[in-house]
Amino acid sequence: MNAAPEAPAPLLIGGEAAKGHGPILEAIDPATGRVSARYQSATSADVDAAVKAARESFAHGTWRTKRPHERATVLFEAARRIAEASETLAQLQMSQNGKALRECRAQAKAAAATFRYFASVCETMEGELTTPRGDYLSMIVHEPIGVVALITPWNSPMTMEAQKLAPALAAGNSVILKPSEITPGTGLALGRIVCEAGLTPGVLNVLSGTGLTVGDPLVRHKDVGMISFTGGTATGRAIARIAAERLIPVALELGGKSPHIVFADADVDRAVEGVFGGIFDALGQSCVAGSRLFVERPLYRAFVDRLIERANTLKLGPPADPTSDQGPLASFGHRERVERYVALARADGGRVLAGGERPSGAPFDHGAYYQPTIIDGLTNDARACREEIFGPVLCVLPFDHESDLIEQANDTAYGLAAGLWTRDVAKAWRVARRLEAGTVWINTYRELSIATPFGGMKESGLGREKGRQGVRLYTATKSIYLSLAGGI
Ligand code: NDP
Predict the structure, then answer these.
(1) In the chain, which residues fall in CATH 3.40.309.10?
(2) pLDDT of residue 143
(3) CA-based, 20 to 30 A from 471: which of 7, 49, 365, 452?
(4) Residues with Cβ within 8 Å of residue 464, at least 6 apart in sequence
């Protein structure tokens, strides 16, 4: 995927390839620093055109009024086509965000599975009859909202895009997807594949471009009826303000600074692997990364030594090489951001126990590589412990008492995820219930199922994606009363 194609890839508007009127975007392969692809980008005029196409397709109603089992048939076909194209999609994502090919392949398969899941949910969706208090039938129906804007980040674009497209379409909406400017490739490719599975033109549109030139006019557009956003908390807050002004629903999956807790009675071998994968899988570029580690003091030194040993065995290398555990960070700019946080941690008195620098020599010289980094000696109020680094940086802290631990673990603006390791079931349950997080893992970490709701508390977001209720996120509830007076 390293040779950049001649013609920049177009936008997708109204079921057709459309010329974007903005500047050409270049996707940079972070493993090599070379341009991997070029993309046309949209302007606010293209946003208008896409919203118009979406609105007209919704008004026309060929998708919205399909019976759920008919929509499900199209979504099953989309799943089949995504699975068929999974190797191309995996290579594409790898060339744009540097994620290990192994993981990109798993994410492409998961994207197909997400469409299958929501096809099943679509086919089995039900309305409800409520208990009447008079001479009428009262019922609830769940209707599509209209034109929905879906905005996704660069870290796992395929996963996020499938997670938003499948339920929003299952609900009968028309959608406009705005992928990250760093990784526009998978969104455009998925968009084309899903359209070709049998969507009416205009039901699914994809606009590549930047947050300011495309994302902002999209969320402000008067005909957009809902926004589903995954990304950073600052952007999410800005979008929520606009949604509040416009009084439209918004779903926000935002950042995290998740506490990962190891009690002295934990199964240490499993906990080391769980904590290690919790932060260094995807090199910490994951909203659920377990980036603050709390270890009960009697186990602290031995556990941290095991982690350092493990970090020194992690093999960085080209993401396509099956012997590489991890590739580069997703972009050169992002690596600089990670480096600034490590410098800040050092200045705040942190001791770098592993990593803390770029690896040297081939094949690292031209890529955005960064070593897995473990830091101790900070307190929970240091900036490296409070702010989302979104990189391979683990801050470790000892704790003495459960109550103090819970206070520290919850002393964060975020509330996305948390993990804990102990053999004591009662303690596990007690602590899990006290942690302020949308997902808590006990004796495991980063297990995620499309069938289980996902989302954040506090500044980690609003609303829950995934699970059967994930389709409801994209619907409006309507109550209907049908009089029985005088017979029907
Ligand atoms: P950003 O918030 O910068 O961007 C996310 C998306 O929003 C991109 O498509 C971006 O476009 C777009 N965007 C940026 N500014 C605006 C705006 N003013 N209006 C509308 N859209 C805008 O996040 P990143 O892409 O940097 O992603 C990393 C962040 O995502 C991390 O903080 C991470 O925690 C979070 N995240 C959360 C997840 C969750 O499920 N909770 C999952 C994965 C990531 P562009 O990039 O083109 O400028």
Answers:
(1) 259-449
(2) 97
(3) 49
(4) 438, 453, 454, 455, 470, 473
Q: How far apart are CA 229 and CA 349, in angstroms?
A: 36
CA of 153 to the centre of ligand 1 (A): 4
6 among known catalytic residues: no
What pLDDT, on a 0 to 100 scale, did the predictor assign at position 488?
65
Closest ligand 1 atom to residue 231 Cα is 30
Q: How far is the CA of 158 from the centre of ligand 1 (A)?
A: 14
Q: Does domain 259-449 sit in CATH 3.40.309.10?
A: yes
The CATH number that domain 11-254+460-478 falls under is 3.40.605.10
Looking from the CA of residue 216, the nearest atom of ligand 1 is 19
Nearest residue to 68 via CA among 172, 197, 193: 172
Which residue intervals of the chain bear CATH 3.40.605.10?
11-254+460-478
For the chain, what is the HEC assignment? CCCCCCCCECEEECCEEECCCCCCEEEECCCCCCEEEEECCCCHHHHHHHHHHHHHHHHHCCCCCCCHHHHHHHHHHHHHHHHHCHHHHHHHHHHHHCCCHHHHHHHHHHHHHHHHHHHHHHHCCCCEEECCCCCEEEEEEEEECCEEEEECCCCCHHHHHHHHHHHHHHCCCEEEEECCCCCHHHHHHHHHHHHHCCCCCCCEEECCCCHHHHHHHHHHCCCCCEEEEECCHHHHHHHHHHHHHHCCCEEEECCCCCEEEECCCCCHHHHHHHHHHHHHHHHHCCCCCCCEEEEEHHHHHHHHHHHHHHHCCCCECCCCCCCCCECCCCCHHHHHHHHHHHHHHHHCCCEEEECCCCCCCCCCCCCCCCCCEEEECCCCCCHHHHCCCCCCEEEEEEECCHHHHHHHHHCCCEECEEEEECCCHHHHHHHHHHCCCCEEEECCCCCCCCCCCECCEECCEECCECCHHHCHHHEEEEEEEEECCCCC
CB 388 near ligand 1, within 6 Å: yes
Q: Is 287 a catalytic residue?
A: yes
**Does residue 157 have a cis peptide bond before it, meaning omega lies within 30 degrees of 0?**
no
pLDDT in tens, 66-111: 999 999 999 999 999 999 999 999 999 999 999 999 999 999 999 9
Q: Give the pTM.
A: 0.97
